[in-house]
Amino acid sequence: MTAVPARRARCPVCGKPSEAAFAPFCSRRCKDVDLHRWLAGGYAIPAVESDDDGDAGDGGSD
What we know:
Largest sheet: none
Helix content: 10-25%
Distance between the termini: 71 Å
Number of strands: 0
Radius of gyration: 21 Å
Structural class: mainly alpha
Strand content: under 5%
Protein backbone atom coordinates (compact mmCIF):
# COMPACT_ATOMS: atom_id res chain seq x y z
CA MET A 1 0.00 0.00 0.00
CA THR A 2 1.09 3.52 -0.62
CA ALA A 3 0.56 6.27 1.89
CA VAL A 4 -1.75 9.04 0.77
CA PRO A 5 -0.18 12.44 1.44
CA ALA A 6 -2.16 14.54 3.88
CA ARG A 7 -4.09 17.37 2.27
CA ARG A 8 -3.19 20.69 3.74
CA ALA A 9 -5.98 23.15 4.22
CA ARG A 10 -5.93 26.34 2.21
CA CYS A 11 -5.80 29.84 3.68
CA PRO A 12 -9.32 31.33 3.51
CA VAL A 13 -7.88 34.77 2.64
CA CYS A 14 -5.36 34.08 -0.14
CA GLY A 15 -5.66 30.35 -0.92
CA LYS A 16 -2.05 29.39 -0.12
CA PRO A 17 -1.41 26.27 1.99
CA SER A 18 -2.00 27.00 5.68
CA GLU A 19 0.77 26.98 8.28
CA ALA A 20 0.33 25.36 11.70
CA ALA A 21 1.54 28.48 13.52
CA PHE A 22 -1.23 30.61 11.96
CA ALA A 23 -3.91 27.95 11.33
CA PRO A 24 -6.14 28.12 9.43
CA PHE A 25 -4.23 30.97 7.75
CA CYS A 26 -0.86 30.92 5.97
CA SER A 27 0.69 33.94 7.67
CA ARG A 28 0.26 36.61 10.33
CA ARG A 29 -0.77 39.03 7.56
CA CYS A 30 -3.70 36.89 6.41
CA LYS A 31 -4.72 36.32 10.02
CA ASP A 32 -4.78 40.09 10.58
CA VAL A 33 -6.65 40.72 7.31
CA ASP A 34 -9.38 38.32 8.45
CA LEU A 35 -9.58 39.97 11.88
CA HIS A 36 -9.93 43.38 10.24
CA ARG A 37 -12.76 42.08 8.06
CA TRP A 38 -14.62 40.90 11.18
CA LEU A 39 -14.05 44.17 13.04
CA ALA A 40 -15.04 46.31 10.05
CA GLY A 41 -18.31 44.39 9.60
CA GLY A 42 -17.24 42.61 6.43
CA TYR A 43 -18.62 39.35 7.80
CA ALA A 44 -22.09 39.02 9.25
CA ILE A 45 -24.06 36.19 10.75
CA PRO A 46 -27.52 36.15 9.16
CA ALA A 47 -30.43 36.58 11.52
CA VAL A 48 -34.16 36.17 11.07
CA GLU A 49 -36.12 39.22 12.16
CA SER A 50 -39.39 38.51 13.93
CA ASP A 51 -42.54 40.63 14.00
CA ASP A 52 -43.17 40.31 17.75
CA ASP A 53 -41.99 42.94 20.24
CA GLY A 54 -39.29 40.79 21.87
CA ASP A 55 -41.30 39.55 24.88
CA ALA A 56 -41.66 36.02 23.50
CA GLY A 57 -39.51 34.31 26.14
CA ASP A 58 -40.71 35.93 29.38
CA GLY A 59 -43.34 33.30 30.23
CA GLY A 60 -46.40 35.54 30.35
CA SER A 61 -47.56 38.35 32.64
CA ASP A 62 -46.59 38.72 36.30
